[in-house]
Amino acid sequence: MSVLNTVPFEKFHGTGNDFFVVDAEDPVPDRPAFARTHCDRQGGIALDDSNRRGADGVLFLALESRYDPPRVVMTLVQPDGSVAAMCGNGARVAAAWAAERTDSDEIMIDTPAGTRRASLDDDYVTVEMGAPSFDPRDVPLESDEELVEAAVEGLTITAVNTGVPHAVAFVDDVDDVDLEAVAPSIRHAPLFPEGTNVTLASPDGDGGFRQRTFERGVEGETQSCGTGAVAVVAAAKRLGHVSGDDPVRVSPPGGTLSVTVPDEGSALLGGPAVHEGDGEADIVFRER
């Protein structure tokens, strides 16, 4: 591995789901190598006032302020070097980053999963997430049938795509499950040809859900997962655990999110997006 020079970055998090943000105008020739190097939780970047190294991904953002509302092109490169089609908390961070530069409270976000509209109220960001799909072609599944409350590698799973695939399991208490132990076999199950995120949910006793997610691309549990929170509510509606179009509170370890999954149309994800600090990172590339 060689170092070319440095690039400025900003660090944001959405309910603990943290990202390095790099302006796409600043060239990073090998984005996968950059993400693998700097997102590493053991040897990656740590801000001066934080002992937590690394991040859950790098957001490369290209602002197109000439549009009304302004647009930002979002590319999320994950710690394993892969590109995620959608990331709910990442989209909220992208909106906050773009809003800082445009003074706009409405931002359009272009992602590989489609264009999403975000609205801001101070540091609280609500973003459209698209319509969840249980269609096996959309998840995708190696099956012609939807996967709803089916046994997969020891858990009862409902599979849904909320921009990326999720295998959702409702359990009595998310803390009673060793997620790091049970998730990898589901994440790599042959039923999921592109792999899947693995999300646990349990009722919080007040109409909402607690959530834990093992993320594909991070290859471990994250403090929050926005697409996972939407998947929880979408699956809960499908199974009759909730009904109607009212917002549902979902609580991952890193905070609280608000999720609305209407009977028709786009789901909504709301929560805070927090700017943690700034720094500079080495630009690296892998020698061939």
TrEMBL record:
Its EC number is 5.1.1.7. GO terms for molecular function: diaminopimelate epimerase activity. InterPro entries: DAP_epimerase_DapF. Substrate binds at N17, Q78, G88, N89, N197, E215, R216, G226, T227. Pfam families: DAP_epimerase. It is an enzyme of class 5 (isomerase). The active site is at C87, C225. The keyword Cytoplasm applies. Its main location: cytoplasm. Gene3D superfamilies: Diaminopimelate Epimerase, Chain A, domain 1. One of its GO terms (cellular component) is cytosol. Coiled coil: none annotated. It catalyses: (2S,6S)-2,6-diaminopimelate = meso-2,6-diaminopimelate. The record marks H166, E215 as: Could be important to modulate the pK values of the two catalytic cysteine residues. Belongs to the diaminopimelate epimerase family. HAMAP family: DAP_epimerase (MF_00197). Catalyzes the stereoinversion of LL-2,6-diaminopimelate (L,L-DAP) to meso-diaminopimelate (meso-DAP), a precursor of L-lysine. Homodimer. This is Diaminopimelate epimerase. It comes from Haloferax marinum. The gene is dapF.
